[in-house]
Amino acid sequence: MDAIVEFFSTWTIEDVAKWATAIVTAAAAIAAVTPSKSDNKYVQKALDIINALGLNVNKAKNKDA
């Protein structure tokens, strides 16, 4: 537990912003190339999470049939 606290206590706001930007960018890219409909409920759940992480809302969301 101490190692985790020590690890995160060394982060600066720039580090947090860099990682947040990277996660949002990656999630948006994955959501853009992933089919919009899925018959597998687990894959659909993952797509929902990816869309949320990618901040894909309104017109940025995948077009569902």
Q: Short summary of the structure?
A:
The protein has 65 residues and is mainly alpha-helical.
Features:
single chain, 65% helix, mainly alpha, elongated, 65 residues
How do the strands and helices of this protein lay out in sequence?
Blueprint: H1 2-9, H2 13-33, H3 41-53
Oligomer: single chain
List low-confidence stretches.
none
Major sheet = none
Helical stretch tally: 3
Order of helices and strands: HHH
Alpha carbon gap, first and last residue = 47 Å
Counting helices, strands and paired strands, the structural category is: mainly alpha
Rounded average pLDDT:
76
What is the overall silhouette? elongated
Number of strands: 0
Helix content: 55-70%
Strand content: under 5%
Radius of gyration: 16 Å
Count structural domains: 1
